[in-house]
């Protein structure tokens, strides 16, 4: 039997739009962050607009009876967060009215748009408001509650209770030695990673990129907590001595601005891993996060690491986070130093794998030079710690670059099973799904990565790449602009913006962005090749050929991916040269050949038998 048509999934009230399918609330077209529990409460109230929804009905609909939770506090907090999102007041309500000792009533007029067809849409605030008709309470109940039953898989799922959001602010370096910044920054990142593994169903930890901007901030904890939608903030300071370190931590409950817990630790460097476990366990107790027996056992194990190895590892992560060729090369050296000092330090092997994969993907080194090193390092990391999500994600990324599609997907899924809050795993898995042509799934992963790490410039840029490869250039342009606004000096965001303009039929506009990206990247050949594509697309053949000459000259002193040359020739509509360079790229096992099936630059060549043969060689066709 065919399913009946779904009820409406988009509602409008005032300047707000409530999108049930995407699980999003928008204000004047801009997405408003609202967690799962408050969102469900709002959806139910909007669906029963004009009626009183009792507290008991809300408990049954939103909080299942078989899950213990402080319901009264949970509901009060959920309604409070909904009101904050709407700019509403309990004293002078415009949207949600409290019915004393009974429940709540949505008092604004709500209208429903017609149900949408099932197709990929922008999940980053690029939805078009549409007119609707005023709906009665019966239809609204169908829309707000029945929709989840009819289309449950499309609605975002979440825990049966409100997640706690914790922000770990950058640890302050009290050593007053700028050369020790790597230590305080690295310790911050390690604490975020450790806390993020506690219980992903109950706790979300704001990621490093999103808290980094609060380093040396003058903002109050209340302001920071509001901006990050955090329930708790962890502040810390580090004072480094040659062989010891003193750490002080403060756990602050944001709404009340009260210290929940404060402690200081004076430890030897070799005890730092055990110290991190101890802090994580204490915080879990303080904010009432349930730990499984396995998690409790893992945190109770005493873990020592060679002091010099730990310091080298933190330096490696410090330089890795710069995401530049120089940064990754320096990080590679430090990760290797950590391994040489302590061969059982699994995280250092994972870092080494990420460096080698990153150097290859960004076009700094050849696949033959670095991918075998990435594979060996990732497998060693898993051998040392099979429960490490980072290690499995590192191996997945390397297998992706090697065109081992089944192996890559299995490792991505394992990483996300081990740590559903690991943003990089969602980020990389989304790219894998795009490559495989599974664009709707790719957008979901990109959205999840952005939700976990909204200020991460690379994650934001790759979200644009998800749209670009799905041929949604308007959304790719919008997402790229968002990332450029966060940091106008981030080359990759300008690259995606320029490429999207070119494919949208605006090559001259794209050229401006691509030239900026190339300059910011230090004339990276991958970026320069896209300038050539823009010239060719604009009909400037001589300029495009000049770029080809520059790339061939550069190849005598550094690695230049043949894939970029193939892209320029494809844009020039030179079929023979296009296939010549694609074959060279295939023989070179250039990692960007992974995108061959979805790269819009090669659209006109897809029916050619040679193109089909190349897809089979890259294992993208049977």
Keywords:
alpha+beta; six-stranded mixed sheet; six-stranded antiparallel sheet; Rossmann fold; 54% helix; disordered N terminus
The percentage of residues in β strands lies in: 5-15%
What top-tier CATH class of the domain at 10-150 fits best?
Mainly Alpha
CA radius of gyration: 26 Å
CATH superfamily of the domain at 10-150: Winged helix-like DNA-binding domain superfamily/Winged helix DNA-binding domain
Biggest sheet layout: 6 strands, antiparallel
According to DSSP, the number of beta strands is 15
> How many distinct helices?
26
Distance between the termini: 34 Å
Strand order of the largest sheet: 4-3-2-1-8-9
CATH architecture of the domain at 10-150: Orthogonal Bundle
Structural class: alpha+beta
Please write out the topology.
Layout: E1 10-13, E2 16-19, E3 24-27, E4 30-32, H1 36-47, E5 52-54, H2 55-62, H3 71-86, E6 96-99, E7 103-106, E8 111-112, E9 133-134, H4 137-150, E10 164-168, E11 172-173, H5 181-196, E12 203-205, H6 208-211, H7 221-228, E13 232-240, E14 244-253, E15 258-268, H8 272-286, H9 293-300, H10 307-320, H11 325-341, H12 346-361, H13 367-384, H14 389-401, H15 405-418, H16 423-435, H17 439-452, H18 457-469, H19 473-486, H20 491-503, H21 507-520, H22 525-537, H23 541-554, H24 562-571, H25 575-588, H26 609-617
Helix pairs in contact: 1-3, 1-4, 5-8, 5-10, 8-9, 10-11, 10-12, 11-12, 12-13, 12-14, 13-14, 14-15, 14-16, 15-16, 16-17, 16-18, 17-18, 18-19, 18-20, 19-20, 20-21, 20-22, 21-22, 22-23, 22-24, 24-25, 25-26
């Amino acid at each position: 039997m065919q399913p009946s048509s779904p009820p409406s999934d988009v509602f409008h009230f005032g300047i707000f739009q409530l999108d049930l399918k995407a699980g999003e609330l928008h204000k004047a077209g801009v997405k408003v962050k609202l967690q799962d529990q408050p969102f469900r409460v709002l959806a139910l109230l909007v669906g029963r607009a004009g009626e009183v929804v009792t507290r008991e009905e809300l408990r049954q609909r939103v909080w299942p009876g078989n899950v213990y939770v402080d319901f009264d506090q949970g509901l009060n907090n959920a309604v409070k967060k909904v009101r904050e999102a709407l700019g509403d007041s309990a004293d002078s309500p415009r949207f949600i009215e409290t019915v004393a000792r009974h429940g709540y009533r949505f008092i604004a007029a709500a209208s429903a748009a017609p149900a949408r067809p099932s197709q990929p849409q922008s999940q980053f605030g690029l939805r078009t408001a549409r007119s609707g008709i005023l709906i009665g309470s019966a239809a609204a109940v169908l829309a707000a509650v029945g929709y989840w039953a009819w289309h449950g898989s499309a609605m975002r799922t979440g825990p049966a209770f409100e997640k706690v959001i914790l922000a770990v602010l950058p640890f302050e370096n009290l050593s007053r030695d700028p050369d020790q910044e790597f230590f305080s920054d690295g310790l911050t990142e390690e604490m975020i990673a450790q806390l993020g593994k506690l219980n992903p169903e109950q706790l979300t930890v704001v990621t490093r990129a999103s808290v980094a901007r609060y380093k040396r901030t003058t903002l109050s904890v209340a302001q920071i907590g509001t901006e990050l939608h955090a329930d708790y903030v962890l502040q810390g300071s580090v004072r480094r001595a040659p062989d010891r370190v003193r750490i002080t931590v403060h756990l602050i409950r944001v709404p009340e601005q009260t210290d929940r817990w404060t402690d200081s630790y004076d430890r030897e460097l070799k005890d730092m891993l055990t110290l991190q476990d101890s802090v994580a366990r204490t915080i879990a107790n303080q904010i009432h996060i349930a730990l499984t027996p396995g998690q409790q056992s893992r945190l109770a194990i005493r873990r020592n690491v060679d002091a010099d190895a730990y310091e080298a590892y933190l330096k490696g992560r410090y330089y890795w986070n710069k995401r530049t060729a120089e940064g990754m090369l320096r990080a590679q050296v430090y990760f290797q130093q950590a391994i040489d000092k302590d061969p059982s330090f699994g995280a250092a092997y994972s870092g080494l794998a990420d460096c080698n994969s990153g150097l290859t993907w960004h076009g700094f080194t050849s696949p033959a030079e670095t991918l075998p090193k990435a594979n060996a390092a990732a497998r060693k990391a898993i051998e040392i710690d099979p429960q490490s999500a980072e290690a499995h994600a590192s191996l997945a990324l390397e297998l992706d670059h090697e065109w081992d599609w089944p192996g890559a997907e299995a490792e991505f899924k394992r990483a996300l099973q081990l740590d559903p809050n690991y943003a990089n795993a969602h980020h990389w898995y989304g790219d894998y799904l795009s490559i495989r042509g599974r664009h709707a799934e790719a957008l979901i992963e990109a959205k999840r990565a952005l939700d976990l790490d909204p200020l991460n410039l690379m994650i934001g840029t790759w979200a644009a790449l998800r749209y670009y490869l799905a041929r949604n250039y308007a959304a790719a342009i919008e997402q790229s602009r968002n990332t450029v606004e966060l940091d106008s000096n981030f080359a990759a965001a300008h690259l995606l913006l320029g490429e999207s303009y070119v494919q949208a039929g605006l090559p001259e506009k794209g050229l401006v962005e691509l030239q900026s990206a190339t300059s910011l990247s230090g004339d990276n050949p991958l970026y320069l090749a896209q300038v050539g594509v823009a010239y060719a697309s604009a009909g400037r053949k001589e300029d495009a050929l000049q770029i080809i000459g520059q790339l061939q000259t550069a190849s005598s002193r550094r690695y230049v991916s043949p894939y970029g040359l193939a892209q320029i020739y494809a844009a020039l509509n030179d079929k023979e040269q296009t296939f010549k360079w694609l074959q060279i790229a295939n023989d070179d096992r250039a990692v960007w050949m992974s995108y061959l099936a979805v790269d819009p630059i090669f659209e006109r060549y897809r029916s050619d038998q040679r193109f089909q043969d190349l897809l089979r060689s890259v294992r993208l066709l049977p």
